[in-house]
Specification:
The chain has a single domain (5-245), classed as TIM Barrel (Alpha-Beta Barrel), CATH 3.20.20.70. The protein is globular. With 246 residues, the chain is of the alpha/beta class. An eight-stranded parallel beta barrel has the order 1-2-3-4-5-6-7-8, surrounded by six helices. The protein has eleven helices and eight strands. It binds phosphoenolpyruvate. The site of phosphoenolpyruvate (PEP) has 14 residues, from strand 8. The site of phosphoenolpyruvate has 14 residues, from strand 8. The active site is at residues 93, 163. Pathway: Carbohydrate metabolism; erythritol degradation; Carbohydrate degradation; glycolysis; D-glyceraldehyde 3-phosphate from glycerone phosphate: step 1/1; Carbohydrate biosynthesis; gluconeogenesis. Substrate binds at residues 10-12, 169, 209, 230-231.
């Protein structure tokens, strides 16, 4: 069975109550593209309000703690996201790997926590610029995959987002051939480790400066099942052309 396209907005640290209107506009118009799964990951503070405003919408968290509860001031546990109405969580975003010092083992534990709470998980990987320039990008990303993807999961609930760090928020994008080569390598590594379900059911997203102008090309690259979108996901005007391109 063909994998459904998946376009996910990562609002990062943007959005207040008034921004719920943008989410309503996005989800309403996304209904015209029933063949595409559309999700938004707003800041934690907006998850409950977004779910209430758009019942049934796919709303997610941008991170979770690996523990179920405890003395972790400022953190949010995966079951709390589920309790707030989220159905997915992003883990391993480079802004957390780099900015918060998260290791592959941390990311793996968070992915396990998300799956354990019944959430779908989008697990991010991606290389820094100097690694890309040194020609080691595929080895680097495959090592992240080896270290951060859990051993046991339902392949329909775990997606990988390939997000080259140098492409995030910069307006720079890899060539379509480079995206296809990376996604092919990721797919091959997953298939070798997990077999058929990973080969057939896991979705591989591309992320990094996707916009309405480049979405068709990037989403048309080999083994790209959708996009994780930052800056261009904040308004319907910018996000919907990407959904339409998928
Ligand atoms: C992201 O933060 O996941 C991302 C891809 O950001 P942008 O689309 O702004 O590059």
């Amino acid at each position: 069975m063909a994998r459904r396209k998946y376009v996910v907005g990562n609002w990062k640290m943007n959005g207040v109550t008034a921004s719920i209107a943008d989410a309503q506009a996005i989800f309403a118009a996304a209904g015209d593209h029933a063949e595409v799964d559309v999700a938004i990951c707003p800041p934690f503070t907006l998850i409950g309000a977004m779910v209430a405003a758009v019942p049934g919408a796919a709303v997610g968290g941008q991170d979770c703690h690996s523990a179920v509860s405890g003395a972790f001031t400022g953190s949010v546990a995966a079951p709390m996201l589920a309790d707030a109405g989220a159905i997915l969580v992003i883990v391993g975003h480079s802004e957390r790997r780099e900015g918060c010092g998260e290791s592959d083992a941390d990311v793996r534990a968070k992915a396990e926590a998300g799956l354990g709470a019944g959430l779908s998980v989008i697990l991010c990987v991606g290389e820094p610029r100097e690694v890309r320039e040194s020609g080691r990008a595929i080895d680097y990303v495959l090592a992240q995959i080896a270290g951060s993807v859990p051993d046991d999961f339902d392949a329909t609930r775990l997606a990988i987002a390939y997000e080259p760090i140098w492409a995030i928020g910069t307006g720079l994008v890899p060539t379509v051939d480079d995206v296809a080569a990376m996604h092919g390598a990721i797919r091959g590594a997953l298939a070798a480790r997990f077999g058929g379900a990973a080969e057939d059911d896991m979705r591989l997203l591309y992320g990094g400066s996707v916009n309405g102008d480049n979405a068709c090309e990037l989403l048309g690259a080999g083994d790209v099942d959708g996009a994780l979108v930052g800056g261009a996901s904040l308004t319907a005007a910018k996000f919907l052309p990407i959904v339409a391109a998928a």
